[in-house]
C-alpha cells in the first residue's frame, strides 16, 4: 500500500528537473545565437576585406592608366606600362607588408599532431558533435608563425594560381592570335617555327643543365637546404624560356619598326609560350620506373616526347575545331541580325576553348591561341560590322586589363608571398643561364635559317632578338602554379626577379637599341613590301639582306601557295561568305552538296578575293598576291599585275628619301653606305 505522501514528493522532484532542463535549453540556444552572430560578423568582415582587396587592384589599374596617358602625352618611352604597373604593385606590397599591423594568433602554442601521410586538402573536425571543415592552405615558415601569415590582408591578396590560368591568361593569349598580322607572320613562318620550337627546346635544355651545375655548386657551398633534382632544373629551364617581349613590341608598334623584325619577335613570343607550357608538362610527366625516380630512363624520355606531341597536336586540333564550329554557326544562322547575341556567342565560344582543352587534359594556352587565329581567318568574315568592331575592342580591352593586372600582382607578390627563398648563387646563375640560353637559341638558328633564306636575317636583327628576350606573364603564371616544394619556391622567387630586371632594363633600353642597331622605323606595315633586288632593298645593317636575283612562282613558297589555293577554293567558301562559289570549284558530281554549303552572299562576293588583313602570300618577283596559279592585284582584279603610276611614283619617292625615316614627330636618320 503506497504512502499518501509519495505522489506529492515525486512531483516536487520532477518540477526542479524540468526547470533546470529548460534553463539549459535556453543556455544552449543563447550560445548557438552568439555563435551564429559571430559567424555572421566574420562573414561580413570577410566580405568587406575582399572588397577592399579588389578595390586595391582596381585603383592600381586606374593609376597605371592615368600615368600611361601622361607618359604618352610627354612621349616618354623609357618605361612601359607593364613596368609601371609592377612599380605600383611593389609600392602597395610594401604598404601591406610593413604598414599594416599583423593580427595576433589566438593560440600561442599551436596544437601539434603527427601524421604518417601527407596532409589531406580538406580536414573534418568533430568538436562537441559539431563538424567543422578546414582547408589546407599550404606550409607556413616556422619563423613567420606568429606574424605575417596571420595577416588576413596578406593572405587574401595572394590569389589562387588557377585564377591566372582560367581567367587572366585566356584573353591575353586569344588576343595574340586574333590580332595576328597574318601576311607578315606567314611570310616568316618557317623562321618563327624554328625559333619557337627548336629554339625554346634548346634554351630549355641549356638553362636546365647550367642550373643543375649551379645547384651542385650550392650543395658544395652548403647553400642548398633541401632537395633540388635535375628534373626541377629542366622544369625551371622550360618555364623561364617563355619570352614575353610585350614592352619591346609596344615600342615597335608605336615607332612602326621593321615589320619583319616585328613578325619574328611577335610570332616567336606567341608560339614559344605554348611550347614552354607543353614542354613543362612533359617534364613533369617524366617519371622513370625503379627506385631512383629522377635518373635517366629512355622509356620515360620517349614517353615525355610522346606527351609533348600528343598534348600540342590535341590542343591545336581542339582550338582549330572550335574556331571552325563558330564559323559555321555564324555562317548558317542569322545571328548577324542581332550583333549583341553574335558578339556574346563569339566571346563564349572563344573562352570555352581554353576551359574545354584544360578539362580534356590538353593545354588551354595552345588551344585558345589557334582558336584565335582560326576565328580571325574565318569567323571574322561572317560577323556583322558592329560585331567585328566589338570583338576587336572587347578582347583588346580584356588583354590590356589582364596583362596589367598580372604585372601589378607581380610587384605585390614580391612582398605578400610568404614562402620566398632568396638564394644569391641561384639568382646570379639563373641570369647567366638565360643569357647563354637565349644566345644558343638565336645565333645558331639564325645561321642555319640564313642558309635557306633568300632574305637573310642580319646581325642587327639577331642582336635585337637577343636583346628582346624579356620574361613576363607566362613565366610568372607557370612559376606560381606550384610553389609547394623548396625547389619550386626558389624558382618562383628567381622568376619574379628576372621578370623585374628584363622588363625595366631591357624594355627601357629598346628605343636606344633600335637607333644603335640602325633598324628601320616609320614603316607602314600595309605598304612595306618584301625587299627585292628590283625595288627597295635593305642593305647590310638593315636586317633582312637580299642576295640579288629574282624568283619565279614555282621557286618561292610552293607549299604555302598550295595551302592558300586549297583554302581559297574550298575552306573559305565552306566556312565563310567569301571566296568563289563551291559550284565552280568542286566537281560536277558534288553539285547538290556545293549548292547546300555555298551561301547566297558568295555569288555576290566572288570578286572580293582579298582579305582586309592581306593574309595572302606575297610574290617577291612581281609583288603580286597569288593563290596557286591566280595572280590578284591590290584592287582585287585577276590577271597579271602591272605597276600603277602611283606605285612608280612611290618607288621614286622611296629612292629619294635617302633612308630618312620619320616616326611620329621623331626624325631618326640612319646613314647607310651606297654599295652601288
UniProtKB/TrEMBL annotation:
The keyword Transmembrane helix applies. It holds the Pfam family Na_H_Exchanger. One of its GO terms (molecular function) is potassium:proton antiporter activity. Its main location: membrane. It comes from the Eukaryota. It is found in: Cell membrane; Recycling endosome membrane. Keywords: Antiport, Cell membrane, Endosome, Ion transport, Membrane, Signal, Sodium, Sodium transport, Transmembrane, Transmembrane helix, Transport. One of its GO terms (cellular component) is recycling endosome membrane. PANTHER family: SODIUM/HYDROGEN EXCHANGER, SODIUM_HYDROGEN EXCHANGER 7. The lineage of its organism: Eukaryota, Metazoa, Chordata, Craniata, Vertebrata. Residues 1-30 form the signal peptide. NCBIfam families: b_cpa1. GO terms for biological process: regulation of intracellular pH; sodium ion import across plasma membrane. It is a multi-pass membrane protein. Belongs to the monovalent cation:proton antiporter 1 (CPA1) transporter (TC 2.A.36) family. The chain crosses the membrane at residues 54-71, 83-100, 163-180, 192-214, 234-252, 306-330, 362-381, 393-415, 421-440, 461-480, 486-507. Residues 64-516 form the Cation/H+ exchanger transmembrane domain. InterPro entries: Cation/H_exchanger_CPA1, Cation/H_exchanger_TM, NaH_exchanger, NHE-6/7/9. The gene is Slc9a7. This is Sodium/hydrogen exchanger.
